[in-house]
Design a protein that fits this description.
There is one protein chain. The protein is of the alpha/beta class. It has helices at about 15-30, 70-90, and strands at about 5-10, 40-45, 60-65, 95-105, 110, 115. The strands form two sheets. Strands 2-1-3-4 form a four-stranded mixed sheet, covered by helices on one side. The chain has a two-stranded antiparallel sheet with strand order 5-6. α2 (about 70-90) links the parallel β3 and β4. One of its GO terms (biological process) is melanin biosynthetic process. Belongs to the MIF family. Homotrimer. It is found in: Cytoplasm.
């Protein structure tokens, strides 16, 4: 049950429903997770500063159980996600930052309980 939170200073028009679906599919494939378990939020039009510049940029946070817990895994995920974002948003790599967060099953609630019990 990965959680993806994309924040950007790009306008909302840059993030159509088609883009959000492609983002979901791309990250699901990168993480090896089913698309129907993905949770994606896109926050456009923010005031953002990366590396001292207000130029167009994206900060992406990916939180998941069992697939974001090592440097080796995240290096692979990062390469795939960067490829998608640079292609789809026409941003250079230095205007994209990704944070990976490893979640434990007891940290994710669903259906009135936590994933540990599902």
């Amino acid at each position: 049950m990965p959680f993806v939170d994309l924040q950007s200073n790009l306008p909302a028009s840059s993030f159509s429903e088609e883009f959000v679906q492609k983002l979901c599919n791309s990250i699901a494939a990168a993480l090896g997770k089913p698309q129907d378990r993905m949770n994606v939020v896109v926050n456009p039009g923010l005031t953002m500063l990366i590396a001292g510049s207000f130029s167009p940029c994206v900060m992406l946070s990916v939180s998941a159980i069992g697939v974001t817990d090592t440097a080796e895994k995240n290096k692979e995920h990062s390469a795939k996600i960067f490829e998608f974002l640079t292609r789809e948003l026409s941003l250079p790599e230095d205007r994209i930052v990704i944070q990976f967060h490893a979640l434990q099953p007891h940290q994710v609630g669903k259906k009135g309980t936590v994933m540990s019990f599902l």
